[in-house]
Amino acid sequence: MAKYQAPDFFDVDALLSEEERMVRDAVRDWVSERYLPLVEKAYRDGYFPKEVIGELGELGVLGGNLDYGDFPRLGAVAYGLVMQELERGDSGLRSFVSVQGALVMYPIWRFGSDEQKDEWLPKLYSGEAVGCFGLTEPDHGSDPGGMETTAVRDGDGFVLNGAKMWITNGTMSQVAVVWAKCEGEIHGFVVPTDTPGFSAPEQRGKHSLRASVTSELVLQDVKLPASAMLPKAKGLSGPLSCLNQARYGIAWGVVGAAMAVFDEVRGYGGQRTQFDKKLSQFQLYQAKLVEMLAEITKAQLMNLRLGRLKEAGTLTPIQVSMAKRNACHFALEIARAGRDMLGANGVSDEYQTMRHMCNLESVKTYEGTHDIHTLIIGREITGLDAFA
Ligand code: TGC
Ligand code: FAD
To answer: What contacts 319, CB < 8 A, 6 or more positions away?
Structure first.
């Protein structure tokens, strides 16, 4: 495979600190050397290559953005660059890290008790334990506020009943953060997955994110002590705050996938000859490359600004919605165009573009679909709530 040449048309590199570049380059090299040789087989056979989990811990990317204990903390831009590089490998890899850090460690860190933090954060940070986040249900995806999973008080503890669906990492997790209604109010629960009554059957048959584990969570009379509830989360804003963190990572991540596609088709056009000319010499081929690079460049700049706002503590959820929506839309458009530009080779798994394209269909859907983010931003612009 030719060496990866990351597109950086506006020299965004020059706007990064030396430390940010070092973190990015370390993950970039790890993805090239360690992960890319594994991913096509994993994708074809439909599994997550678990052997990388401990290495991700050693790289410091699992919850690396959290200010906890002696974790060496990554700034928001460095964290975003890590997501970009991981998703250059595969959206399933970035998903694993997003869920672990933004959707499992973050709620425990932000809403958990000291005991919950001490029990789970170090193990999740190192990769010794894997976690999942159960919000979506079979009948409640875009509308999580309608969830039907219940937590009923039982003596000093709770009994959980219900079902979650499309849960990343579910089957391979040791801990699940499960959202349920208790006396009509949404609360989060830290559920060890060996608790009797809890099971997480894997959902097979995906055309997308095949190198990622996706599962149902089934909760049948799952008895938990009072200490399992996240004490500081109450209402839908609890899980939605976690989504802000994960959506931030996605906005960066999908640009990595788009950058990988651009690199592949730029290289291909310079090699492949038709009508006695390189494909790259045809105006239509060039126009497609230009569209790709323009959207990648805009998204890189948007992400950098997003990250600096996050570091300043002024980033709003609406800004995250705009970045997630825009980046996913254009990354998918770029991958679809790239697939076409590779001709028949574009459907072969000797090229990575179609894998990215198929993955991005999921990424556009999860963490709030394109439509849902449109309506979130529309509500902000107009003051009128399309969900009410
Ligand atoms: P709404 O009335 O808008 O809000 C209810 C309460 O929540 C507050 N809130 C937020 N808080 C923090 N961050 C946000 N982004 C927030 N958005 C809203 C809001 O202020 C209110 O608070 P309070 O105190 O007044 O109660 O509620 P709604 O029911 O109308 O919500 C609509 C909507 C569309 C915003 C929301 O439900 C939504 O975002 N839906 C999309 C669902 C989604 O994104 N699910 C993702 C599941 S996890 C996942 O996909 C993981 S994939 C990971 C991987 O593999 O990488
Ligand atoms: P629906 O909500 O049924 O939407 C279907 C269509 O209707 C979409 O096009 C949507 O935009 C549109 N629509 C819905 N409401 C409106 C409206 N008001 N106005 C206009 N259009 C609307 N969830 C988790 O909790 N944890 C996870 O780890 C997780 N991982 C996932 C991994 C994968 C691979 C996938 C595919 C999903 C994952 N999800 C996870 C679930 C994901 O968050 C949901 O699929 C997503 O929120 C959309 O919900 P839905 O699939 O029920 O679609």
So the answer is: 306, 309
